[in-house]
Amino acid sequence: MKRSDLTEKLLDIKREKGWSWKQICGEIGGHSEVLIVGAILGQMKLTRPQAENAAKLFGLSKAEQAMLNETPMRGEGVAMPPTDPLIYRFYELVMINGPAWKALIEEEFGDGIMSAIDFDMVMERLPDPKGDRVKITMSGKFLPFKYYGASGNNQAYGWKEP
What we know:
Blueprint: H1 3-17, H2 21-28, H3 33-40, H4 48-58, H5 62-68, H6 85-109, E1 112-126, E2 133-144
Antiparallel strand pairs: 1-2
Helix pairs in contact: 4-5
């Protein structure tokens, strides 16, 4: 079985049972809803205890349970640029705002990146009389660029210079 086959099986069960993502995340537990849903969709991995919870919930075999705990090929099956309108808007946010985010992060922290590995994300619904809003908060560890071959008094990392 391929990981994509398991994803389709899990989505079929979700539809047949009429479960919400909140219900599934509550049963599996332990991490953010974004991570758990990402794992069900094949983009993240669950811990062994979470995979066991998911296996009980979905009635999975031991092999399918183990697959939920394997590191996936992240990004597989996602067209670039994305064609889904909602996902495309995130892509568009990065294309339009990415250069400004980069400039501001580098001015504040120095030469480096925001980690997508050491990372947290929370999604919230904010009621608004003009139409509810989606609030996404992202927090990633700053990883400074390492300057190769630095010696003597030369700076080795891209921390913000005084």
